[in-house]
Amino acid sequence: MMTVADREIDIALLRIGNKPGNASAKIAVPENLEIISDPAKKTPADFGCFRIMTPKDGDKRVVWDSRDFAQISEAKAMFDELVVQGLVPYRVGVNGRASSEVMAEFDPYAEEIIFLPIAMVAGG
Amino acid sequence: MAGAELLRFPEALAPIGNPGVMYGPCSAAEADQCQQYASIGAKAPLIIRSHNGTAYYRVGDNYLEAVEWNMIFNSTSAATASNGWYVTDNSTCGMTATVSAKIKVRTSYGEATGMFAKCYDYGTGDSSWIKLENGWDHFAEPCGTAVSEWAWANDGEHECTVSYRQGIINNGFIYAKPMTPEELKIHTEKMLKRRIHEVIQSRCSPNIIVRNNTKRQPLAMPTDIREQRARETLRRVIGDAKFTNFVRHGFISVKARSGLVYQIFTGHGITHVFNQGNLVERLCVVLQGNFPPTDSLIMRYLLILNNEQQFRSFAVKHSVEGYQTGRSHQQNGQADIRPLAEIFKELKRVA
Fold this sequence. Notes:
The structure holds two protein chains of two kinds. Chain A is mainly beta. Chain A is built from one helix and eleven strands; from the N terminus they run βββββββαββββ.
């Protein structure tokens, strides 16, 4: 049984100078969307997938049924919110198809979308 | 491989061995690798290894790929010899699987009524040469004959050197499958092609460089669930084949649009940039915060593929002066300088 906290994604927002800052934001996962916690569990067929990089969870995987309009709508809303919070969505090729492109807008037919906290990227 | 057409197996898909009897510890590296596979829910690859432990062959998850091994049925003289192989089933953390088998022989060497066979007993060494009578037989007294036909049977009594041509792993059982004439023909042509390819490759200039002094070890099994998730994401993105290499070597390589090849490591590992095989830059780009190490690798992969310039704009450059990626050597050894046509003719004759 998932708690409310389990259905929240804690995303890192910014860094201060060359160090990660404490600022973060919590984004609730819409009710109709499923969170897959088990790394070994595969995304069901015909489902789209967000993989959101967070320090707390590693990659939080949220899936939606691309045949269900209600779920698509919620996925789009979540997509927009994540983008507003500064995460960059990359549509990636899967199974070895080496490709990645930044998505300007939500595409319900995208197989995998990885959200990268670009604010946390820095030279080392 | 004269006599290949004489190869026979029992009924199609008849089980010939149950690797339920395990013995012999795997190496630490094998155990680590196995645990990593288990940790991500992946089926571990099967490894076939020679007696002296030097040759490893990665075979598919479902099919044993025919590799170049010597077959005891292939002798036409009294001096039979087998180059034995045993099977390591890494799905049980690298423990050695024993295969119980009995050999069916039909000899045609003079007045011979049987064959020699040698049993390999892991841990105690090879058995003596043992005679097998014609037909389905257990190991008995030594004698001097040759083999013209053989096959495996399943009696669950003996642990023998196994020579597979093709097989299937399913639920822990090893199955042998007879090759149809068409499959045998395809297989023979494939082996011939591979050998010729190797010869041509060995004549290329410059020779292929193989690094033999790398100290890279397979990645340790992640205990952190966050890292497990990150690795699963990476696996999904780069595919199973590249992911297997990643687990083995700890990095992935990606070619950017500029033609440069980036060798990306996990965590805070410095990214190596190669131009036509030469290390030209070392770039450091990190994902700050308490992210799992593989997330950093995914970040670099995405940035390099999507916007190489952006990746480089983030990077802090490190010197390549004095930095060595490892000594290299030419691996070809003694070159076969005969004309290719002659080599091909010989291979064709042997096949």
